[in-house]
């Protein structure tokens, strides 16, 4: 979809689905500053808006950055720490202060808050993923507001989600959210940086995150927060392809969340794909980093994408990486462009022995035959 279509006039109201459960994300720049640390008045204003949603019967999960920024101020640091231990120390000091401010702000409305800290391992491992999901849903059932953040105190690069934009997309998957709202310091996705380009215009609606849309992103420099607009587009790809709409809107304008829920055309609306992925397939597609890649031929891709078939050994032409049976692998053609992910029934060494073979030859090649399919269609997700 081109920019000309994106920049047509907005409707008076958006046709949002019925929203019962939503996830709201706020970045460091909205609730903290490098010099002052946490900003109680900003946190209080956010609590005012979310409390009104809760009063209206909405279930809300808040994903909040700010722990490292808070810790920086308390440690007297003027520049974001670069080493993992320094970030972890700042996060350990700042997270408790962040939660204390949220407790104080929401206590005015009789709303209890609960801290939920996650790492990539909590999301990638299926049992832990289900435990996290169950915890969040039980908290919502008790009328408690979960406040989620990445567990920066223990996270190292191997177990980091990386930024709270991608984390919030995974949280939206975890709880089967009806809507994801990213509150930021700009009021949507623009055709350029509105602070530098006077001709930059806000896109009211994005039907799909195409390469053309991705070329529009710009990342602010000198901010406390890690996530720029590029990571917000990554989040949009993850949630909209799972059937969840997403909105990027200003966190500095009073009443933004109320206006969003009323369907007013604030911010940029990312339209969901028509079909909603089942929870297990969302986990396969987005929660687990692929452990390897299978290159398949055009006939196999056609069978998977157009006829809903399973992947057979005869369609595999190359195997990359070392992985075990039951792990997630990426699928692509020879051009390397990923088009699907799935749970493999065979490990990498086995697949190298049977790639290109007919199913009738598997027992002779391996000495046994566990499955006819490399990836069963029930364990396959087209991207």
Elements, N to C (H/E): HEHEEHEHHEHHEHEEHHEHEHEHEEEHHE
Helix/strand-derived category reads: alpha/beta
The CATH architecture classification of the largest domain is 3-Layer(aba) Sandwich
CATH topology of the largest domain: Carbamate kinase
Count up the helices: 15
Spatial order of the strands in the main sheet? 5-6-4-1-7-9-10-8
CATH level 1 class label of the largest domain: Alpha Beta
Tally the beta strands: 15
The number of distinct structural domains comes to 2
Mean pLDDT, all residues: 88
Q: Note poorly predicted spans.
A: 1-10, 222-227
Q: How many angstroms separate the termini? A: 18 Å
Explain what you see.
This protein folds into 2 domains: 279 residues, 3-Layer(aba) Sandwich (Carbamate kinase); 93 residues, PUA domain (Archaeosine Trna-guanine Transglycosylase, Chain: A, domain 4, Roll). The protein is 37% helix and 17% strand. The strands form 3 sheets. The protein has an 8-stranded mixed β-sheet with strand order 5-6-4-1-7-9-10-8, with helices on both faces. A hairpin with a 3-residue loop joins strand 2 and strand 3.
Secondary-structure blueprint:
Elements: H1 3-6, E1 21-26, H2 28-31, E2 32-33, E3 37-38, H3 40-55, E4 59-64, H4 67-75, H5 84-107, E5 113-118, H6 120-124, H7 126-141, E6 145-150, H8 164-174, E7 179-184, E8 205-206, H9 211-214, H10 229-240, E9 246-250, H11 256-261, E10 268-270, H12 279-287, E11 293-296, H13 298-307, E12 316-320, E13 328-332, E14 338-343, H14 348-354, H15 362-366, E15 380-382
Features:
383 residues, alpha/beta, Carbamate kinase, Archaeosine Trna-guanine Transglycosylase, Chain: A, domain 4, 2 domains, 8-stranded mixed beta sheet, 5-stranded mixed beta sheet, 15 helices, 17% strand
């Amino acid at each position: 979809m081109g920019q000309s279509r994106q920049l047509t006039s907005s409707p008076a109201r958006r046709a949002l689905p019925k929203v019962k459960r939503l996830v709201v994300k706020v970045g460091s720049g909205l609730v903290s500053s490098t010099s002052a640390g946490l900003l109680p008045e900003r946190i209080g204003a956010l609590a005012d808006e979310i409390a009104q949603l809760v009063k209206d019967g909405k279930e809300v999960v808040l994903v909040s950055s700010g722990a490292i920024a808070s810790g920086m101020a308390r440690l007297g640091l003027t520049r974001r720490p670069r080493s993992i231990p320094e970030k972890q120390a700042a996060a350990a000091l700042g997270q408790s202060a962040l939660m204390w401010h949220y407790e104080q702000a929401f206590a005015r409305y009789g709303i209890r808050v609960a801290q939920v800290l996650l790492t990539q391992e909590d999301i990638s491992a299926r049992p832990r993923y289900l435990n996290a999901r169950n915890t969040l849903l039980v908290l919502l059932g008790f009328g408690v507001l979960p406040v989620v953040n990445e567990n920066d105190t223990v996270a190292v690069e191997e177990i980091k989600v990386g930024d709270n934009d991608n984390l919030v997309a995974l949280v939206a998957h975890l709880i089967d959210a009806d809507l994801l709202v990213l509150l930021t310091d700009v009021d949507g996705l623009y055709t350029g940086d509105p602070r530098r380009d006077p001709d930059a215009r806000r896109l009211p609606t994005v039907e799909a995150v195409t390469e053309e849309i991705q070329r529009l992103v710009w990342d602010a420099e000198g901010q406390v927060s890690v996530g720029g607009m590029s990571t917000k587009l990554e989040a949009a790809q993850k949630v909209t392809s799972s059937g969840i709409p997403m909105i990027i809107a200003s966190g500095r304008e009073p009443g933004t969340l109320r206006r969003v829920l009323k369907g007013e055309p604030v911010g940029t609306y990312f339209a969901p794909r028509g079909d909603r992925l089942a929870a297990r397939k969302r986990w396969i597609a987005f929660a687990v980093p692929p452990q390897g890649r299978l290159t398949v031929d055009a006939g196999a891709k056609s069978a998977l994408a157009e006829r809903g078939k399973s992947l057979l050994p005869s369609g595999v032409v190359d195997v990359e990486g070392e992985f075990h049976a039951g792990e997630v692998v990426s699928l692509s053609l020879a051009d390397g462009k990923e088009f699907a992910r799935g749970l493999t029934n065979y490990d990498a060494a086995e697949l190298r022995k049977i790639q290109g073979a007919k199913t009738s030859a598997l027992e002779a090649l391996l000495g046994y035959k566990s499955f006819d399919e490399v990836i069963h269609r029930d364990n396959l997700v087209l991207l």
